[in-house]
């Protein structure tokens, strides 16, 4: 398929990656990881699990920021998270619980700020969290649909993505995105 339709494959790859990116933005990734790690440390007394969770989220977000949202996150929390990571690494070498206590003072400060941001978000601007989707226009990628496609009629392709998406207020914070089709229809997902 890559040989016969390279544009379609490229578009599908970008759209898939970006939809995954916006499903859990960086603030939510850290919020979730810090909650999971705190439960492991404070409730379950499982330091190994806590270290595993924190090392994983540090590794996942250690790449250079690609979106405005990721840049803002790095500017606001990068220094604190880097310092907390240093304490975490020190603990892995020394097994000194005081190193974890120092790390958790920093992680807790970050968590409180992230929690406020997340609770206040009702909409997310696509150009801040996924400029690639924001700029995507007139794709060859077919619009997902529950409607039966009639043979002989042209497939409805993605014309563009709505400039913002709605965050549904629940623990998992699902997002609702609108996509315009080449037939002029607006589709909610």
Structure characteristics:
189 residues, mainly alpha, three-stranded antiparallel sheet, 7 helices
Per-chain topology:
Layout (H helix, E strand, L loop, with lengths): L5 H18 L2 H18 L3 H14 L7 H27 L2 H24 L2 E3 H4 L1 H5 L22 E4 L2 E4 L7 E2 L1 E4 L4 E3 L1
Antiparallel strand pairs: 1-3, 2-5, 3-4, 5-6
Helix pairs in contact: 2-3, 2-5, 3-4, 4-5
Describe the structure.
The chain has 189 residues and is mainly alpha-helical. It is built from 7 helices and 6 strands. Helix content is 58%, strand content 11%. A 3-stranded antiparallel β-sheet has the order 1-3-4. Strands 2-5-6 form a 3-stranded antiparallel β-sheet. It starts with 5 loop residues before the first helix and ends with a strand. The model has no long low-confidence stretch (mean pLDDT 94).
